[in-house]
Specification:
about 375 residues; Neuraminidase; 2 helices; about 40% strand; 6-blade_b-propeller_TolB-like; signal; PQQ-dependent sugar dehydrogenase
Length: about 375
Amino acid sequence: MYKWFKLYLLFSLVLQSACNGNNANDQPAPQLSDAELVDKVLAEGLNYPWELVLGPDNNIWMTERGGRVSRIDPETGAVTEVATIKEVEARGEGGLLGMALHPNFDANPEVFLVYNYNRSGTYTEKVVKYRYNGTSLVNPVVLVDNIAAANIHNGSRLLITPDLKLFITTGDAASPASAQNTAALNGKILRINLDGSIPTDNPISGNPVWSFGHRNAQGLVLVGTTLYSSEHGPSQDDEINLIQKGRNHGWPNVNGFCDADERAFCEENKVVEPLKSYTPTIAVSGMDYYNHDQIPQWKHSLLVATLKDNTLYQFKLSDDGNEITETNEFYRSKYGRLRDVLVAPNGKVYVATSNGSNDKVIEISRGN
């Protein structure tokens, strides 16, 4: 009996070891050590840069609010002008804003821009598609027009998804009520096809609105199939949002999370609460997603540039991306106001300042 008992114990230990994966092939991957961060000025002498996009030529494409589109060589920092959009009218926060390049740029060298201009005496925003001929932008085609503009709250970021849909953030243009009106283009995230037509699977038939109830979203990034935005609050409640198709994000009836006096509106209108809210505001702007081994401590994180707070924020995401689990701050007040952040495929990060005097693009890389 004792012999059989010993065999039973031995069998149990072997089985437990197998279930726990206690063999060399099942050991977890070694934890990567945190990287030392090294930052340097790549380019300077700029005037309110707004958007940074990595082009297929491995250059950083950049917009400046006054109307200039340029390419920056990431090796030398040399800035080459591609175009100056003469129609752009920079007024207050308005001017030349977001930019996106066609994902298959070699076959379709299309550049998408959103900017403010004077439309017969009315300050207006529009989205225009250009063609890049190798040296400059030509053949403009207007995709969306007659978006109300103002000295404040114009948005606007552009993002093209792998299924070739163009997302556009618009501000409320100082008219908060428009954010709740799905017939208006302001205070929204819009979604169109690359020819300007409206996708058949949009939430409202024949309508470019994808989500509404936004005040002034100036950051937009796609992680897998999940869309995130950063949005300016008034004097409180800047937001980091997970955008949901057809849903109401609350503004102006709700700021940040659904507080007691906002609860009834939230329930009645199925308002989506933010992942994170900041009071006092830090003025969140451009954002990108980091998931590279070069800076292991930033993996699976949103990186967000802030204006008032003069800081680059890291928001670590949960495995499913539905929560922010950790927040870290970098470069507070070192470079002033920060407008946009770009993550390159090689793991380097580029940040644009927004000080209005000798603005810069900063390169952040691994130092050890």
